[in-house]
Design a protein that fits this description.
The structure holds 2 protein chains of 2 kinds. By secondary structure, chain A is an all-alpha fold. Chain A is built from 6 helices and no strands. Chain A is flat, with a radius of gyration of 22 Å. Classes of the chains: A mainly alpha, B alpha+beta.
């Protein structure tokens, strides 16, 4: 789960030099097509492995775990359940967001509400950072552990990823409302 | 025999250039006039009114077209790059500011057509004329044909704009080996002679487009990490601003409205551009223009001093529009200004001191004791970089052997999902080539088509993004709704252009894809616009007709030469025979000439002269058959021509 990004980059550059279409400009159309397909694969792989979250999601999927899909096209409403410990807070936040949107529609300003939301954003961003930290340490457990520990860590990370996704959407919603307020 | 040279071309909004790699150094190839820059102006020549109406239009490009811009503005066009890959509804703002004359009957969703005189041209065709001029300049310089090129495009060009550029190359008879992003090309030109490491930014403000690219240099690898920009922001906008101010002042102070006078506007535009250029080096510029006598007193002049402070205040809103993309690119790259080691300035508009001040501020240069790179001519650096990329592709130079460019796609790629929302499948700033695979199914039993709407852009709703194309997956085997599983692979190639393939997985059938580019030309349309075939269409057609006429003449001559052997020949009078012989000799003599009309006339004459003989021969054949001969033997007697009702019937001339 944790990798040395510098060596990942070196490997990416080494393979790029070998596969990139620029190296096949004078080759046959078949070879060019091969270069194109393989460079695309290489780039997609590098993009996935470079980003810690995408990398974790990818590796866990390889382990057979179901990780929520991010696509709008694929059941966006599927994992909308807030994590149990945040239920109350999220309920309150959603009320505030709704109120803020109403205010904006009416052209009214409520500085106290705006301050509340700004505070909530900071709090949820903090939770997000905490999740990232937990993910990283679970990843370390996974890297070092035997298969039983791996199994446990993988399940924990899958839960953390769900939580992270939820928090991120929440922060995004708050940001949207606050950006509108600032405009 | 050395391998054919691959040239690098900067197809600019204002100027275009062609360059190539001479040994280890890229150099710009000058035109006949000795100038490195070919102004991106195309003018349709005035055709001699006595000439045949079908005569092909001749076109002037570059400096020599500049005069037409003022003398015959309705036959000339500039800044056509602004129209590449765009639709009618995209360019309403441009139309207010630029004297583009469009065909009257363009429908929304159609490729634009520009009117020059009484002819119409797509933006790609206009660009193709510029490219062909550059191709000719290179061919004259090398004394050898040039058919392969690398062409630069603004990094922020979308798929349609890139396709339109590639189409233009094809029309000009160029095999476009690669489209390279302009700022990346500039980085290549700068990075050539130093083994640089670290993060650099390229700020490229040209005539009509703005790009910002952030790259990571590492051991010869130029890896773009983020790019942003505005494809409709550049020096043109400054010109338009100055022009609008001048037009207002002339109307208010001199009571002359020049807005309806294209030639006067062009003259004024030329004057404000010169003032703009002077203001880059001088504290004040003067405008002094003689106004047309109509409407005002004769010899009236518009005289105006523009101090630099006033000018800078005026253009500040235009320049400020570059700041947002710069900040976004840094955010996307995950860097702060202090991490940028070096900054490269590209494009003629970066000569403006106010631009340099703004750049210094955005990237915190002088506070860090840094200066932007301007050593290479900002007008030429992109073409030089294109030549470097051409050399990388050719693999012909040890200087460029170790260099590799890894560029990104500037815009996210998405597909329209339920409710008009965009599902993003390839994020912006993904290294290209990049791919994504999506699965689709049917919604109705027995459905054999699935439509996919592909979009480019960063907005949530499909209606706010740029429609790229509608793909129609066809030939899906009829199945229960939801059962087919169609795998569609989207691939953005190294040119930043989308390719799509699809497969129905349950049946294993390769689904057919019909692509309807939203603002693009089909392959067939491009074929018909290829300039070389346009150039040669007239002569090709004549050559073909000549060949056909000679074949017709040969056929009838061969038949006539066999005639004396026929029994029917004896039935002809001496005069008739002499006449046939005379006409035969005439056709034989004229057949080898290039005179199409004469060959046809002589062929017709011989046909007429032998009509009586042909009828008699038919009668003989028929009576021969009556005497027990078969048609087969009769035909043997007569030669091969008997099967036709009239053996000498000429081929029909179409």
């Amino acid at each position: 789960m944790n990798i040395e990004t510098a060596s990942l980059e070196r490997e990416f550059h080494r393979l790029s030099r070998r596969l990139h279409p620029d190296r096949f400009a004078r080759a046959t159309p078949e070879e060019q097509q091969w270069s194109l397909a393989n460079t695309a694969l290489l780039n997609d792989a590098y993009r996935t492995l470079r980003d810690p979250i995408q990398r974790t999601e990818y590796l866990l999927r390889l382990e057979g775990l179901k990780i929520g899909e991010e696509h709008a096209g694929k059941g966006k409403s599927a994992d909308r359940q807030p994590p149990a410990d945040l239920l109350e807070e999220v309920f309150e936040l959603n009320m505030q967001l709704e109120e803020m949107r109403m205010n904006q529609k009416m052209g009214e300003r409520d500085p106290a509400l705006q301050a509340d939301l700004t505070a909530a954003r900071a709090r949820f961003e903090g939770l997000l950072a905490a999740v990232d930290g937990d993910l990283s340490s679970k990843g370390a457990e996974w890297d070092a552990g035997d298969s039983a520990i791996r199994d446990q860590a993988a399940k924990a990370m899958a839960t953390l990823l769900d939580r992270r996704r939820y928090l991120r959407n929440l922060v995004r919603d708050v940001n949207e409302v606050l950006t509108t307020a600032a405009a | 025999m050395p391998e054919e040279r691959i040239v690098g071309i900067d197809l600019g909004t204002t100027n275009s250039l062609v360059a190539y790699m001479e040994g280890s150094q890229p150099v710009v190839i000058p035109g006949v006039d000795g100038s490195n820059l070919v102004p991106s102006i195309v003018a349709l020549d005035i055709v001699d009114p006595n000439a045949e109406s079908s005569a092909r239009p001749t076109v002037t490009v570059g400096n020599s077209a500049r005069r037409a811009l003022i003398e015959n503005p309705e036959r000339a066009v500039y800044s056509v790059k602004r129209l590449m890959g765009r639709g009618l509804e995209d360019i309403q703002d441009e139309l207010k500011l630029f004297p583009f004359q469009l065909a009257d009957d363009i429908q929304p969703g159609e490729v634009l057509r520009i009117r020059l005189g009484d002819k119409h041209f797509t933006p790609s065709e206009i660009s193709a004329y510029i490219l062909r001029q550059l191709k000719r300049n290179a061919e004259r310089y090398f004394g050898a044909p040039v058919t392969k090129a690398v062409i630069t495009v603004p990094a922020y060009f979308n798929d349609a704009q890139r396709q339109a550029t590639r189409d233009a190359g094809r029309m000009a008879g160029l095999d476009v080996l690669r489209l390279v992003n302009e700022p990346t090309a500039a980085a290549l030109a700068y990075g050539l002679d130093r083994a640089k490491e670290g993060i650099i930014a390229v700020y490229d403000l040209g005539g009509g487009t703005f790009d910002i690219s952030i790259l990571k240099l590492n051991d010869g690898i130029f890896e773009v990490i983020a790019t942003n920009g505005d494809t409709h922001l550049g020096g043109d906008d400054i010109d338009n601003l100055l022009l609008a101010v001048a037009l207002d002042e002339i109307r208010n102070e001199h009571n002359v409205d020049l807005r309806q006078q294209p030639d006067a506007i062009q003259a004024l535009r030329k004057a404000v551009i010169e003032a703009k250029i002077r203001l880059s080096t001088e504290p004040v510029a003067k405008l002094d223009i003689e106004l047309p006598s109509n409407g005002g007193p004769d010899g009236d002049r518009y005289q105006r001093e523009i101090p630099r402070e006033v000018y800078e205040q005026l253009i500040q809103p235009v320049l400020a529009r570059t700041a947002g993309p710069c900040r976004q690119a840094m955010a996307d790259a995950g860097i702060t200004p202090d991490q940028i080691e070096e900054l490269v300035l590209v494009g003629g508009s970066t000569r403006i001191p106010a631009v340099r001040t703004l750049v210094d501020e955005i990237f915190q240069l002088s506070v860090r004791g840094k200066k932007p790179h301007t050593e290479l001519n900002p007008d030429e650096v992109v073409a030089l970089g294109a030549a470097v990329q051409a050399s990388i592709l050719a693999g012909s130079s040890t200087t460029t052997d170790e260099l590799l460019l890894l560029d990104v796609t500037p815009l996210s790629l998405g597909i329209e999902a339920l409710g008009g929302v965009v599902a993003r499948i390839i994020q912006r700033n993904s290294t290209i080539p990049a791919s994504a695979t999506e699965h689709f199914t049917t919604g109705v039993d027995g459905q054999t088509n699935v439509a996919i709407h592909v979009l480019q852009g960063e907005r949530e709703l499909a209606s706010d993004c740029r429609s790229l194309a509608r793909f129609d997956l066809k030939g899906i085997p009829p199945m229960t709704a939801g059962l087919p599983r169609i795998e569609v692979k989207f691939l953005i190639d190294a040119n930043g252009i989308l390719q799509v393939t699809a497969r129905e997985q349950r049946s294993g059938l390769e689904a057919q894809i019909e692509v309807k580019p939203t603002y693009g030309l089909t392959d067939e349309q491009v074929e018909t616009m290829i300039l070389d075939s346009f150039d040669h269409a007239e002569t090709d057609f004549e050559a073909r007709q000549l060949i056909e006429a000679r074949l017709d003449a040969d056929t009838i001559l061969a038949a006539v030469e066999k005639a004396p052997a026929s029994p029917a020949w004896k039935l002809l009078g001496e005069d008739e025979k002499a006449n046939i012989e005379a006409v035969r000799l005439q056709l034989t003599a004229i057949k080898t000439s290039d005179n199409l009309q004469a060959i046809r006339a002589a062929t017709t004459d011989l046909d007429h002269a032998t009509r009586n003989f042909a009828e008699k021969m038919m009668e003989a054949a028929v009576s021969g058959a009556m005497r027990g001969k078969t048609m087969q033997t009769a035909s043997d007697d007569l030669g091969e021509a008997v099967n036709a009702p009239h053996p000498f019937a000429p081929a029909e001339f179409k």
